Structures are given as C-alpha cells and as structure tokens.
Amino acid sequence: MLAYRRTHILLSLSIQFTNRHFSAASSHSPLSSLPRSLSLGQTKQAHARLITAGLGADTQLMGPLIAALAHSPSAPSEYCHAVFHSIQNPRVFLANNTIRCFAKSESPRESVGLYAFMRRSGLQPNNYTFTFLLQSCSNALALVEGIQVHAHVVKIGFGEDVFVRNGLVQFYCACCKIECAKKVFDESPQCRDVVTWNVMLGGYVRDGQIGLVEKLFGEMPERDVISWSLMIMGYVQNGKLEEGLQSFKEMREKGLVPNEAILVTVLSASAQLGLLDQGRLVHSVISSCNFPLSVPIGTGLIDMYAKCGCIDQAKVVFNAMPEKDVCSWNAMICGLAAHGLGMEALSLFERFTSEGFCPVNVTFVGVLNACSRTGLVSKGQHYFKMMSENYGIEPEMEHYGCMVDLLGRAGLVPEAMDLIEKISIQPDPVLWTTLLGACKIHGLVELGEQIGNKLIQLDPTHDGNYVQLAGIYAKARKWADVVRIRRLMVDRRANKVAGWSLIEAQGRLHRFVAGDKGHERYPEIYKMLQIIGKRIGEGGYMPNVSPVMHDIEEEEKENAIKEHSERLAIAFGFLVTACGDCIRIVKNLRVCGDCHDFSKAVSKVFMREIIVRDGSRFHHFKEGNCSCLDYW
Questions:
Q1: Comparing C-alpha atoms, which of 625, 622, 1 is closest to residue 295?
Q2: Contact status, residue 587 vs residue 610, Cβ threshold 8 Å
Q3: What are the residues whose beta carbons fall under 8 Å from the beta carbon of 45, sequence distance 6 or more?
C-alpha cells in the first residue's frame, strides 16, 4: 500500500508540471478534435486513414496523432519512433510529444537520443522540450544525461522558466541528489509556483527528512491537496502516525477535499494504531465525497477494519468491492488469520486460486499464519510444500518463521529444529527466538537454556532473549537462574522494552504502562480496577502468577500483575464507554497468561466484549471465552 501511495503522489506531481499548455500548436490541425483519451487502437485507425489518403507525412495532420499517442498509457515506443521518423521536416511540437511518449515507455533514455537528433537537424527546442526531456531522465534515473540536459537549459536560456525549473528539481530528487534539487530550488525564488514547492517537498519525503518536510511545508506561501498529501505521507512513512492523522484533520478544517492517496494513507495510519473511530471517520469522508470503492481504497478499508478488530466489517467491504486485486485478497486472508479464523482464511485462499489469481509471498504468509493460529499442522505442511512445488515461490524467512511457530506451538519442537537446520541460508535469529518461545510454552527447560544462551551470544543487546530465557527458568522455579539472567541483561544494557496498551476514547488516544499513575483520571481508574477485581474474584477468578519472574510470595506476585497496562486500559474503558459497549485495546507486546485469564473473567462477569490486539494476534473475549481458544 505504501508503494501505491508513493507512486500515486509522484505521478500527481509529474502531471502537475507536464500537463501545461504543451498542445497549443495542435489547435491549427484538422485532427485537433481527436479526444485525448483516444485508445491506441483508435489512434492506429486514424493513422491508417491518413496513410490511405496519402497524408501520412503531413506535418500538420500528424501533430494531433502523436499528441494522442503521448496521452495513451500504452503506446509502444517503437511505434512512436516510427511515426515520428515517417514525417519530413517535423516541427518541435511533434518532437516534444514523441519525447513524451518515450518518457512513459520502458526505455525513457531514448528521449535523449531524439533530442540529439533534433539538435543535429537544426530543430530548436522550447521549454516543453526540456520539461518532457527531464521527465524522461527522472524516470530512467539517468543522472549523467540529466546533468547534460541541465547544461543545455542554462546555455539556451530556459533557466528561468518555471516549468523547466520544476522539471530540474524533480529530476534531481528522483536521482536522490537532494542537495542539487535544493540548490535549483533556491536559485530563483521568483520562479516558483505551488508545483515547485510540492516537488521539493516530495524530494524530502522520499529522502525521509521529515524535519525538513515540516520546515518547508511551514514556509509554503500556497498549499494544495498534493502539498497536504505529501505532508501526511511523510509523517506516516516515518512512523509519526498521530501527526499524520492530525494533519488530515487540519486539511479538512481548511475545506480541502482529500484525494485518494491521502485517504489510503490515513487508513493505513488508523490501521497501524488500531484506531477504529478514526478509521470510521475516514470511511465516512470517502462516502460523503462519493469516492468509488476502488481497489486501493477498498484494500485500505479491509486492512483498517481487520487491524482495528472489526473483521466482520472487513468482510462486508471485501464482498462489496466491484474489483479486487491480489493485495485485496491478501489483506482479507491475513486479516482472517490474525483473528484466528484459520479455516475461513484457508477457504478464502482456495476461492482466490479458483478465480484465477496467482498467490505471491505475502499470500502464503497469511495462509501459514492461519494454520499456525489454529494449530492446523498437516494443512500448514501441505501449503508450505505447495508454495514451492505449485507456484515456484521459494520460502523466505517469514515463511520459515510461520512454520517454526506452527510446529513449536503444537509441541513438535524437534521437527521445528530440524526445519531450521535444513535451511540453506543462515537462519534468522527470529526463528530461534520463536523456538525459544515454544520451549517456554511446553516447559522444555534444557533445550530452552541451550537456545537462549545461543541467542544471547548472537545478539547480547536484544532484550527479548533474556526475558524469554528468564521466563523459562521462572516457570521451572529456578530463581537463582532468573536472577542471573536478569543481572546479565542489566550488565549488558539490554533493557526490556516497556509494555504499553492503547485505548481510543473521546477523540483521544490514551496510553498506559504497568503501574501508570500519569493519567489525569488515575484515581478513578484504580478505584474501578478494585471494583472489577472484587467482582471477578467473587465469580471464581484466581490469579495466574506464573508469568511473574521473581522468587517472592504469592501475594506479592498478585500485586505485581494487578497493574499491568491492559488492566488499566480495561478499567479506563469501563469509565468512558457505555454499559454493554465493546472495549478495544491495542498492545505492543504479547498478552501475558494472567491478563488473558483476567480479560476472560471480566467478559463473563460484566457481559462486556473486549477485543485486544497484541503483538501476536487478536483476542476476542466474550462470555468468558477467547477467540484464540487459549492458543496464542
């Protein structure tokens, strides 16, 4: 999706500085009424009529024909080249449109050869020549040729033309020469329009310099939808998701109508943060602006609803899409897998292939995850084999990771180890980390110790390895080893990543960490937590203190787990949602065993549905049960 948004915005920029007045010369031609949307087949028919009438070499008649080819998305460069060279004494208008044809083709460098032919023939270029020529150099990433074109721009005297300068800034940005682009941008402040600013802004976005993006955006004398689109995309691509959503809000407050790229970007931000209310707001904007349910928008909505815990709504959008591509199917398959709906995901995959679609790497990540989440070992092995044998897709580390997770969770740890050892390339440490987690689940202390020590040697700074190994020792009540590992973790400065939980309420994001007292309503939150604890205790809930890795009394362990971040988020949810409403929480880490039991108990005693998206999957707690069937 990010690749689509980037392409869409850069294409918009390209259109902004190339679609300006270039076809003025065509107004004098008898074929000037040819529509710009003429298909390639229609263009060839028109060409054939001209040839049969003996007018195939008429310069004035051929102008609109080549202009139509320039606007066609699929005109072969060889055909354009042949048409151009069939004309005696072609004018600059014809040459410019032929260059434009080459710019969109798979061989954009041919534009430079045509420009050289123009110069040898004595055909004088104009500003449009250089605009299209620089676009060709940008598309071909032809730095050397583009610099030569720049020299001609200065020599011939078009250095102050705003369209040419836009082309130069775009060219240097495309070639990752951001300093050169900024130099051209700064040379003539009087020769700038909104496109100039947008192209420079896009260069900084592409280069990941979000600080300079913010600075330049703040200095812009005028902003259009492309400007806001670039600003929002810059934030989201650099992980500043909340800032991206805030920019979207500001843009709407100014009365601007978002484009498709903006909508897809903010849907992605909402999905990553798990903000259902924000995602629904974007969906309402899509509906109110009468945007069609295109493939990018539909796929973005599926991804958002799936990642915000509304898998049923994701299905509604998927079924309503008039057209789907592989990405749409992948989003739905992966969404079903994340929600533990393994059989549905596999059924959808079979439908996907039966409709003639060809799976890609990501498709099989979703399929294998579906098998892993629901313990479908034989099916997972079947699809893993199918991937290479039927579709020629060589397994990557993510696929091996799914298989190791599948086998490990099912207790087939030796088989998982055998799979890792058979990988022809160096196994990613994540595979061993996954296996270490399986050792913890199944109480395999000796093997876990062996793998844990190996991982610590491979990466002494990664906190997760220490935590996993300490957890294995704690489960076996080997407290001296727990203390030793945690001390080693501190000595090597591999501090544990703090767990947090997010909940969206009253138009704001509320973030909690364990023992958090920084929230303005923390006294009410802790009071509510006590009420919840008392009620579920009366309902039969007993704390599971096995995740607490300390050799302390049971009562102290119970106190240690009472203030975990998701419990605080649930208590806050009781304060800010109506009775009976679903409480939705996003966690950065895997939910611990006791908090899982706690959430099940709350859903039963209070008759409240709780949906938690943790670092592994979705958990739908309802009536005392979880959708994961205690398998996560």
A1: 1
A2: no
A3: none
Strands 508-513 and 610-613: unpaired
Phi and psi of 353, rounded to 5°?
-70, -35
- Structural domains in the chain, sorted by start: 36-191 (1.25.40.10), 352-491 (1.25.40.10), 511-626 (no CATH)
CB 399 within 8 A of CB 364: yes
Reading the block at residue 485, the tokens are: 């590992």
Position 30 scores a pLDDT of 43
442-484 pLDDT, tens digit per residue, is 888 888 888 888 888 888 877 778 888 888 888 788 888 888 8
DSSP line for 5-66:
HHHHHHHHHHHHHHSSSTTGGGGGSTTTTS-TT--HHHHHHHHHHHHHTT-TT-HHHHHHHH
pLDDT recorded at residue 474:
82
d(CA 93, CA 352): 48
- pLDDT cut 90: percent of the chain above it: 54
Work out whether strand 610-613 and strand 583-587 pair parallel, antiparallel, or are unpaired: parallel
Give the CA distances from residue 114 to residues 97, 118, 129, 292, in Å, rounded to whole numbers and listed in that order.
11, 6, 11, 40
- pLDDT, tens digit (0-9, with 9 covering 90-100), for 527-578: 999 999 999 999 888 876 555 444 434 444 444 557 889 999 999 999 999 9
Which residue from 114, 40, 115, 50 is spatially nearest to 79, judged by alpha carbons? 40
Contact 395, 388 (CB under 8 A): yes
Amino acid in the structure at residue 142:
A
**Minimal CA–CA distance to 130: which of 167, 98, 102, 162?**
167
Does 583 score more than 90 pLDDT?
Answer: yes
Each as own residue / partner, the long-range contacts of residues 437-440 (CB below 8 Å, 24 or more positions apart, any chain) are 437/408, 437/468, 438/404, 438/405, 438/407, 438/408, 438/409, 438/411, 438/413, 439/408, 439/413, 439/472, 440/468, 440/471, 440/472, 440/475
Average pLDDT, the chain: 85
What is the dihedral sign for C-alpha 232, 235, 238, 241? negative
Question: Starting from the edge strand earliest in sequence, which strands make up the sheet with 610-613, in order?
Answer: 508-513, 500-505, 583-587, 610-613, 618-622, 625-626
Integer-rounded Cα radius of gyration of the chain = 30
Say what the pLDDT of residue 58 is.
66
For the record, the structure tokens of 532 come out as: 């919840």
**CB-based contacts of 394: which residues, under 8 Å, 6+ apart?**
388
Model pLDDT for residues 198-242, shown as the tens digit of each residue = 999 999 999 999 999 999 999 999 999 999 999 999 999 999 999
Distance, in Å, from the CA atom of 521 to the CA atom of 575, rounded to the nearest integer, reads 10
For residue 496, the model assigns a pLDDT of 64
Q: How many CA atoms lie within 13 A of 555 on its CB side?
A: 0
Burial class (CB within 10 angstroms; exposed 0-12, middle 13-18, buried 19+) of 258: buried
User: How far is Cα 87 from Cα 386, in angstroms, rounded to an integer?
Assistant: 55
> What amino acid is encoded at 119 in this protein?
R
What SS3 state is found at 106? coil
